[in-house]
Amino acid sequence: MIYTITTNPSIDYIMRFDKFSDGATIRAYEDEKYPGGKGIMASKILKNLGEDPINLGFVGGFIGEYIASGVRDLGLKEKFVRIADNSRINVKLKYDHETEINAKGPNISKEEVEEFFTSLKEISGDDIIVISGSLPYSLDEDFYKKVIEATGAKFTIDIADKRVLDYLKYKPLLIKPNKEELGKIFETEITDENMVKYAKKLNQLGAQNVIVSLGAEGSIFVDDNIALRAKPIKGKLVNSVGSGDSMVGGFVYGLVNAYDKTDAYKLAAACGSATAFSPDIAERTMINNILREIEVEEIGN
């Protein structure tokens, strides 16, 4: 079974308009509301590919119930812990740029955290947990470590700073920094010449597989044996939210369904591009169409 954890889910409120002007009244020509959060995004791509993941995390108040019902409306399973405080709303502004305004999230009590850990008892070492995203301010910074230790499950982890190094001793199935995050992890500038070297350092420290996303320049994949680069796919960027989570979901789907790593990486690259070219998480038809275009090549150290 695949589980995804979203500790700080949101309503992602997307507003599209032509031009931003500071201090002005701006009228959106289109707006959308989605249940948001990196774990939920990964669940959506896994569902579209044919898996049936279970969403875990915390939701609260009328915002939380909107999120939970939205997840269920998508045909996804959820076992969120209900909390007293309200979940958050994140605002995504789409014009000639993309601007995101993310709220800090709810207060979660000690009793609510204990209820969450009780819910983990059904998870075993044969399961996979997709761990990603920021923690609400009220949770201990070691929360994810406690999840890993409590379950013994295989896991992926996608967090945006050098704290990811603390998780490599647990041998994650996958980590997926982008180029900027890889540089922050090792406090250096990442270039085409040293990118594989630093990605492989993550392997050496314990990560079984590493994907470094490069935005419009594609991505690279490394494990202990190979280094690959997926060439970028041409298309119109519609929505970058969830593209990285789609890559994670695609790779996990490949592993669960016995793809070799090259094919799992190709699927991950296709999922990431397809979501970037879609208003929401990509549907299977678009993923399959883009997958036919994905080209990967071996790259050196």
From TrEMBL:
Pathway(s) where this gene product acts: Carbohydrate metabolism; D-tagatose 6-phosphate degradation; D-glyceraldehyde 3-phosphate and glycerone phosphate from D-tagatose 6-phosphate: step 1/2
Segment forming the signal sequence: none
Pfam family, one: PfkB
Keywords noted in UniProt: ATP-binding, Kinase, Lactose metabolism, Nucleotide-binding, Transferase
GO molecular function, one term: 1-phosphofructokinase activity
EC number(s) given by UniProt: 2.7.1.144
Reaction catalyzed: D-tagatofuranose 6-phosphate + ATP = D-tagatofuranose 1,6-bisphosphate + ADP + H(+); beta-D-fructose 1-phosphate + ATP = beta-D-fructose 1,6-bisphosphate + ADP + H(+)
InterPro entries attached to this UniProt entry: 1-PFruKinase, Carboh/pur_kinase_PfkB_CS, PfkB_dom, Ribokinase-like, Tagatose/fructose_Pkinase
CDD domains: FruK_PfkB_like
UniProt domain Carbohydrate kinase PfkB: residue ranges: 7-278
EC class (word): transferase
Coiled-coil features, chain-numbered ranges: none
Purpose: Catalyzes the ATP-dependent phosphorylation of fructose-l-phosphate to fructose-l,6-bisphosphate.
Family the UniProt entry places it in: Belongs to the carbohydrate kinase pfkB family. Belongs to the carbohydrate kinase PfkB family. LacC subfamily.
Protein name in UniProt: Tagatose-6-phosphate kinase
Species of origin: Anaerococcus kampingae
